Amino acid sequence: MNLRRMDQLLAGFADGDAISQEARLIRRLCRGMGIASEIYAPPECIAPAVADECRSAEDFPAESRDMVMYHYSMDSSVTDLYFRASARKVVRYHNITPAEFFDGFDDETAVGLRAARRNLPAVLERADKACAVSAYNAEELKMAGFGKTPISVIPLLFSFEECEVAPDPRMLRRFRGPLKTILFLGRIVPNKCVEDLLLAFAWYHRTLEPASRLILAGSEHSCPRYFSMLSLLAGRLGLNNVCFEGFVSDGGRSACYQTADIFVTTSRHEGFCLPLIESMVHDVPVLARAQGGMQEALDGSGVLFEETSPRVLAELIHRVVSGEKLRKEIFHSQRERIRRLRQRDLRQDCLRLMA
């Protein structure tokens, strides 16, 4: 491959964000192969804590590169930069959350998501190549009518180093104790359907395991109205053992995983879901709704559930937390999944992305 420069465009750049993490890893792999690479995002969408890791889209040069990779999941002003770039264009498709989830909670985001889906055919039409992070996402691209070249599936690139940082000792001390701990970690946004987990936890806490708590780790800024609704629901249900942690650092994430007896996600829409992998790295049993790309992320490990009632979900959580034989089977499947992932050749996958 005679590639000298490959730059990436993102709608936003933030710490703890899976797309941003992948972009950083791709940049590191490119530079390690002698390929110059930078990441660009709108300046107002770059988190201050990682501002030194990403360049402003205002500095994006029109020429002087061989390839541009657009990480697409949301409408953004960088779409125009992608359109105008003369380089070879690769679309890295991370999926577009259905706007209906945000209606009434964040109408501005809903408008942006509808625009992203409306603009997807034009973005794909300009692309020389499209790569999805899951077969689920690839199917969406096929439905959008991208037939110019085959759509490849290259799972989300991530580094085990970022999953295995030392835990924050202060958080470990806070959560020390005998309580059975249910964990959800991720963006607190409507498509995650965290209210379903709250309702299930109410059953679990009252009828199956009073000595229990639910940790919800994720920024309240992603969708403030939705976060407020969840807080009100927890209060209305009388749940004192729900810990709204907000954004947590890398060390905080590790502490959450080390504290957890089970990771549960009731999300109804995911393109991949990196926290499932992070949970398995930390040897936490995973229970996930059988939706979207989560089935591919687990790849036969963990436990998947279909649509069910809060009571039945609570009983399933109890079985996973308390059933010694079942936990052994889950641990075996998850450790095997992580073993396979550790054999992945990230450099080769990065080259495949750019081929």
Count of DSSP-assigned helices: 14
Regarding quaternary structure, how should these chains be classified? single chain
Strand order of the largest sheet: 3-2-1-4-5-6-7
Compute the separation of the termini in Å: 8 Å
Please name the CATH topology of the largest domain. Answer: Rossmann fold
Q: Please identify the structural class as seen in this structure.
A: alpha/beta
Can you offer a commentary on this structure?
By secondary structure, the chain is an alpha/beta fold. The protein has 2 domains: 6-157, Glycogen Phosphorylase B (Rossmann fold, 3-Layer(aba) Sandwich), CATH 3.40.50; 164-341, Rossmann fold, CATH 3.40.50. It has 14 helices and 13 strands. The strands form 2 sheets. It has a 7-stranded parallel beta sheet with strand order 3-2-1-4-5-6-7, sandwiched between helices. Strand 12, helix 11 (294-298) and strand 13 form a beta-alpha-beta unit. Helix 7 crosses helix 12 and helix 12 (310-322) packs across helix 13. It is globular and about 65 Å long. It starts with 5 loop residues before the first strand and ends with a helix.
